[in-house]
Write a structure and sequence with these properties.
Number of strands: 0
Largest sheet: none
Oligomer: single chain
Order of helices and strands: HHHHHH
Number of helices: 6
Number of domains: 1
Distance between the termini: 35 Å
Shape: elongated
Mean pLDDT: 87
């Protein structure tokens, strides 16, 4: 596997893992309603004792806490993945400074998510998890503003990753571009002794 294919594979792995995280986050809240619609017999009595609304609230809180942990862990993993990816591009390939800049911007997006947006979303989310729908409207508004910024950064990160992927796939040259020159050199008159002519 040449370096360009390995770079494309690593970038695809990074972006594919991000898609998996989005799917997990979206599906996890849906699992609460699926569980309450058809609870296992052993849980039915507990759900009845709590009441459907309180059971749903408690289960959604558990899912929210799990998602918070998933996203914090994924952001930390992305910082490590992004740094390793950057240094691999820098030292093991002949990629241009523009490609390196795209990766640095992706890492900057992850750092903004991890240290600027996620902590605020977590603290506000925990405040509003058990609040009634009409309470803490200011905090809810702040949470959704941060949430929108988070997904805006995620979209920018995806656009940068796709731009890098297009550049890697469509770019000709590099090490493979020298193959024709090496072939021409062997075919010159000075090298005809190789095949005995």
């Amino acid at each position: 596997m040449n370096s360009r294919r390995l770079v494309c594979f690593l970038l695809g792995l990074w972006m594919g893992s991000g898609l998996l995280m989005l799917w997990v986050a979206a599906e996890s809240f849906g699992s609460v309603d699926r569980l309450l619609a058809r609870p296992p017999p052993v849980a039915t009595a507990q759900f009845k004792a709590l009441g459907r609304a309180d059971a749903r609230l408690l289960l959604r809180y558990q899912v929210a806490e799990q998602n918070r942990w998933y996203f914090q862990t994924w952001e930390e993993a992305q910082i490590v993945i992004g740094a390793l990816f950057f240094f691999f591009l820098l030292f093991a390939t002949g990629e241009s400074p523009f490609a390196l800049l795209l990766v640095l911007l992706m890492i900057a997006g992850v750092l903004a998510q991890r240290f600027l947006l996620t902590p605020g979303m977590i603290s506000l989310g925990r405040m509003i998890d058990f609040a009634s729908p009409n309470a803490l409207t200011g905090e809810r508004t702040q949470f959704w503003v941060l949430h929108s910024w988070y997904w805006g950064v995620e979209l920018v990160k995806w656009a940068l990753g796709l731009a890098l992927a297009v550049r890697l796939i469509s770019r000709r040259g590099g090490r493979s571009g020298n193959a024709r020159q090496h072939f021409d050199m062997v075919d010159k008159a000075n090298y005809r002794h190789v095949n005995g002519l």
